[in-house]
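LOB domain-containing protein: structure tokens wanted.
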Amino acid sequence: MDTQVVPVHSRVHQPCAACRMLRRRCDRNCSLAPYFPGEEIEKFAGVHKVFGASNVIKMIQMVEETRREDAVKALVYEARARLRDPVYGSTGAIFHLQKMIEELRSQLESIRSQVLELQQHRDQLLGILMNNVHCLEDDLFSTMQHDPMFGGDV
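Answer:
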């Protein structure tokens, strides 16, 4: 039972996804390591393919440190969108959603118009029905007044 304790300073540092993909030595000062962990290589691969590693580093460094994680998320989103749609990128999705919104608004307006027509039709039918009920009541009252069976005069 021969166990050796490895000192903390001699442990192997796991390279980030960027350094793994670019086959570079990843040191503790790597600016991409906090945002591209070693097991998320596909995340960096898309960003690298669309923007290039040096541009990604420059863009990240241009953003204040508290906002860098959000900036990387935006870069990853845009890169994935750009790989899916090389011409429009994320704006293609935005245009598609805007078109859907317009179509749905048009459908909603059409349905509102149909509802209004149905309400008017219902009101007309209720008017006819109420008129018929009043006529039947009047006929019944008149019949009862003139029919001796109901105590009316003959």
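The mean pLDDT is 88. Helices lie at 17-22, 41-51, 53-62, 68-84, 90-146.

Cheers.
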